[in-house]
Design goal:
With 266 residues, the protein is of the alpha/beta class. It folds into 2 domains: 154 residues, Rossmann fold (3-Layer(aba) Sandwich); 97 residues, Orthogonal Bundle (ProC C-terminal domain-like fold), CATH 1.10.3730. 52% of the residues lie in helices and 14% in strands. The chain contains 11 helices and 8 strands. It has an 8-stranded mixed beta sheet with strand order 3-2-1-4-5-6-7-8, sandwiched between helices. Strand 1, helix 1 and strand 2 form a beta-alpha-beta unit. The longest helix is centred in the C-terminal third of the chain and has 28 residues. The protein is elongated and about 70 Å long.
């Protein structure tokens, strides 16, 4: 994939995770990546590796083949208008902001540019993200280019734009929900006798193994659950108690709460 320069406007948690993903996979040389942040001192580790670090969004966008907008939704209009003069007609704009449509982003820049919305999760920095992407005013070749870029850093899908809010909750917020489950399992492990580090190691690897089973075998979770639940066994007793305490319903309610926050802006 031919890319000479990528600009990441906004070197926060997600922006820097993407930069780490690009670097760890050898997709680009450090000098081909530019990251912006007001407090550039927070990006010193990247500067030491040869990544271009600057406060100047316009300088970052100039000559970039792909511009990631890793900023807050309320900052989008100001920043897009700021960098518009530096964008070429074939520059790919990729917004990481939640809840702002591609059509609205295009109205900010006043140009008919290919615009993508993407929602990776922070596992992108180790090449294990689940990234959902929507495309607007883009050719099939441009869609393939963006899909390939994210596929090098995990799994990626092109979805209808109307599903971007839902994908944000399930994949991006979802990684925090998974972390919370692992933390709770670790705390339970301590309760039954393990030290904290060992409990965390066991819990994290168990969750990784469960996920890999589903991904590699293509089975349904209940199929795998059935294999470890026996009549009057300890597993089914634990699962039933979790359900009595609202395990599944609380998770579903959490997903819906996050989704409604995006949809309603409250």
């Amino acid at each position: 994939m031919k890319v000479n320069k990528i600009a990441i406007i906004g070197g926060g948690n997600l922006g820097t995770a993407i930069a780490k993903g690009l670097l760890s996979n050898g997709l680009l040389k450090p000098s081909q990546i530019t990251i912006t942040r007001r407090r550039t001192s927070l990006l010193a580790d990247f500067a030491d590796k040869g990544v271009v670090v600057t406060k100047d969004n316009k300088a970052a966008a100039k000559g970039a083949d792909i511009v990631f907008l890793g900023i807050k939704p309320y900052q989008l209009e100001e920043v897009v208008k700021e960098i518009t003069t530096e964008l070429a007609e074939n520059t790919l704009l990729i917004s990481l902001a939640t809840g702002v449509s591609s059509e609205l982003i295009q109205s900010y820049c006043g140009l008919s540019l290919p615009i993508f919305r993407a929602m990776p999760n922070t596992a992108i920095e180790i090449g294990e993200s689940m990234t959902c992407i929507s495309a607007y005013n883009a050719t099939e070749e441009q869609e393939e280019k963006v899909l390939k870029l994210f596929s090098e850093m995990g799994q990626a899908l092109i979805i209808p734009e109307e599903l971007m809010a839902a994908s944000t909750v399930l994949a991006a917020c979802g990684i925090a929900y998974a972390m919370r489950f692992i933390r709770a399992a670790t705390q339970g492990g301590i309760e039954i006798g393990f030290g904290s580090k060992l409990a965390l190691q066991i819990s994290a690897q168990t969750i990784k193994g469960a996920a890999d089973l589903l991904i590699q075998k293509g089975t349904h979770p209940e199929d795998e659950i059935d294999k470890v639940t026996t009549p009057r066994g300890v597993t089914i007793s634990g699962l039933n108690e979790m359900e009595h305490q609202g395990f599944s319903s609380s998770l579903i309610k959490g997903l819906l709460t996050s989704f409604n926050k995006i949809e309603n802006g409250k």
